[in-house]
Each structure stands twice: as structure tokens, then as C-alpha cells.
Automatic annotation (TrEMBL):
Protein name: Aminoacyl-transfer RNA synthetases class-II family profile domain-containing protein
Gene3D superfamilies linked to this entry: Bira Bifunctional Protein, Domain 2
Gene Ontology CC terms, in alphabetical order: aminoacyl-tRNA synthetase multienzyme complex; cytosol; extracellular space; mitochondrion; nucleus
Example GO biological process: basophil activation involved in immune response
Amino acid sequence: MDHEGQAYEIDFTPPFKRVSMVHDLEKEMGVKFPPPDTYNSNETRKFFDKLCAEKGVECPAPRTTARLLDKLVGDFLEVKCIDPTFICDHPQIMSPLAKWHRSQKGLTERFELFVMKKEICNAYTELNDPIRQRELFEQQAKAKAEGDDEAMFIDETFCTALEYGLPPTAGWGMGIDRLTMFLTDSNNIKEVLFFPAMKPDDNKTSAPTEGTSV
């Protein structure tokens, strides 16, 4: 059941559906995008900014290309991922730690697994080029300075480690809490967390002041 109260039956029978992010977003919206290897340009940012405005997709400032694309994917692709679905081939501008795609310029070797419109797994081939990694960190730092809280900073320790060498590497991470929500038919993530964050109790009796007997 989603947050609107609508019930769904989820089919976990493999193989799971695969969706190529940029290609399928173009098909879903009926719009041809600029080439992915131009996504760092201001012209492309203006294209996606205008597209979001035309489609009524909200994106708070800063309206960077990465944030605009993320909102479009959320409104047009993720909402249709009821059964397990892999969204693949993310643009480099959205994946600063992922290695470039070996056959498609501007994209990366990355996928996310979505179930019931929610991401439960993120995976990619690690970028192990220290020069390229620093360039991407610098782009991220610029976005953070412009107000993008989700952008990364320049990790000097990581860049130094890459200069010593990193063999071909890949990895994945799964949100076990979200998966547990689906398996237990829970509507709130707090129901499956061992130590959920709790709001302060405003009605809690205040601590005794100095000199007060207890």
C-alpha cells in the first residue's frame, strides 16, 4: 500500500524489468534530450529547466542539471516502478563516484533497484581515475556552494588513495529497512527500525531546577 492508501500486489518473480534512464525518460516524455556528454553545459541546464517548467515538475533552487533530471526521473519513471525494476545507465553528472559507461558517452555503469516507487538498492562500477574523480568532486563542490545540499565535497583523502591505485572495483548497497517494509507490509519505516528517531516529547516533565527537592 502506498502513502495514498492504494493497495498493490508486488511480483518479485525474476527477471526484473530493466529501464535505461535517459532513453526511457525520453520515450516516456516524448522529448529528445541533448546528448548526455553535453550535460555539463549551461545550454543543457536551460533545456531541462524549461522542460520541468513546461511539465509542471517542481524543483527547488538550485536548479542544476542533476537536480532537474532527478525530479523528472522521479515524476515520470520511478512512479511506475511497482514491481522490482532496475533503472540503469545514469548520467555522469548524477553519479560522481561511478565509472563512465564503456559504450555510451556521458553515462555511467550504474543501476538502482526500485520497488513500489522506492529505491532499495544502488550499485555501480567504481571510478578509479584520480584525475577524473577530482574533476567531478570540483563540480560537486561548486554545486554545493550554490546551495545543493546533496552535492559532495572534495574528498582529498579519497583522491590521494586513488593516486596510489585502485583495481577495477564495483559494489552495491541495499536499504534493508525499506525491503523489510515491503516484506512485512509496513507503511512506516519506523515500524521496522530497531531504534527509530523520535520527536521530542513537548509534554515531558521538565527537569527540576537547582534547589528543588525531589
